[in-house]
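Hey,
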Amino acid sequence: MENGADTVPSLGWSDFARERCVPGGAHTWFAGTPGELLDRVRAGWPRRRPGQGRSDLSGVVVVPVDPDGFVGSTVLVEEGMPLRAELVRRRPGEEPYLRVLAAGPREPVRFASVVLYSAAVLVQDGGRRSTDAAWEVVALVAGPVEHEPMDPLTMARNLLGKPGGTRCAYTAEEFAEAVWYWARRAGADPQAEG
C-alpha cells in the first residue's frame, strides 16, 4: 500500500532537520509552517525520485516542491568576497569538518526539494527515528538549479560510512560534478547578514 505512486505514507520531521532548517540560520529553510511543508511534500510525492547514489524509491527520496517561501543556503563566491572558515561538527559524536562561509547575497531560489529517509534507513548504523512516521524530512534543498549536486563532504561521509552518514555508493562522475558545482560556492554567513 505504502509503495503505490498515488498513496502518500505518513510523514514527519526529523529532529536533525528541525534543528538545522531554521530561519536566519546557515542552512536552507522554509518560511512557512512545518505542516505547510509536509503538505507540499504530499503534493509532490508522485514526482519523487531516488536520492543521490540510490537506485530505487525504498530508502531515500527527493521530492520536488513549490519553491515559494524557501531561502537557500549558498553564496556564489566572487573575487574579493569576504570568506570565513570554521571547524564545526553537525552533531555530537560526529567528526568535525571545515566549513567555509561567504559574506554575500544568498543565491536566488528557483527550485526546491525535500529529502526524506524511510524509517528503515533512519535506524541503520545505530541511527534513530524522531517520529513514528514512515518517512522523515532530513534536509531541504533550495537554490538556482533543479538538481543541485550533494555537497562532496556529505557524499564522502555517506560513502565511507562515517558517523552521521547513510552508507551508499556514488560514481566518479557524481563526485566530479559535485566538486565542480561546489568549487565556487560557500555557505551563507549568518553573522555577516545580521
